[in-house]
Amino acid sequence: MSTIAMILVLMLGVLLYLLPSIVAQLRRHKNNNSICILNIFLGWTFLGWVVALSWAFSANVEIADEKPKIKKPDFLDFVGIPVWVRPFILMGSFLLVLIYLAFIR
């Protein structure tokens, strides 16, 4: 298997592993942080991943008519990167570190 194919398989695996966190973020779930923590720490068990995914699809989302809470903007807000792109940036950074450790070092 070539290096490119291995990297693509790894990216797909990480994307699938983080799917509950991505769904919760995109749906603006009120318990987004809890879902992400559950997914990261217990997602390696199939039961933890299924619970996080079903929790992410639950109806506990922010309603668009509510007044949005004022939050402190972070760096990615200033750059103008949409919320749905941020997990891919994190995954790409992680893969760059893996490539560096595997090949360059």
Q: Indicate the low-confidence ranges by residue numbers.
A: none
What is the residue-averaged pLDDT?
81
Q: From the alpha-carbon coordinates, what is the Rg to the nearest angstrom?
A: 16 Å
- What is the SS-derived class? mainly alpha
Strand content: under 5%
Strand count, sense and barrel status of the largest sheet are:
none
Helix content: 55-70%
Helical segment count: 6
Short description:
This protein has helices at residues 3-17, 19-26, 32-42, 46-56, 75-79, 86-104.
How would you portray this structure in words?
The structure is a single chain. This protein has 105 residues and is mainly alpha-helical. It has a domain of 70 residues. Helix content is 66%, strand content 0%. It has six helices and no strands. Helix 1 packs antiparallel against helix 6, helix 2 runs parallel beside helix 4 and helix 3 packs antiparallel against helix 4. The two termini are 21 Å apart. The model has no long low-confidence stretch (mean pLDDT 81).
Task: Summarize the SSE layout with pairings.
Blueprint: H1 3-17, H2 19-26, H3 32-42, H4 46-56, H5 75-79, H6 86-104
Helix pairs in contact: 1-6, 2-3, 2-4, 3-4
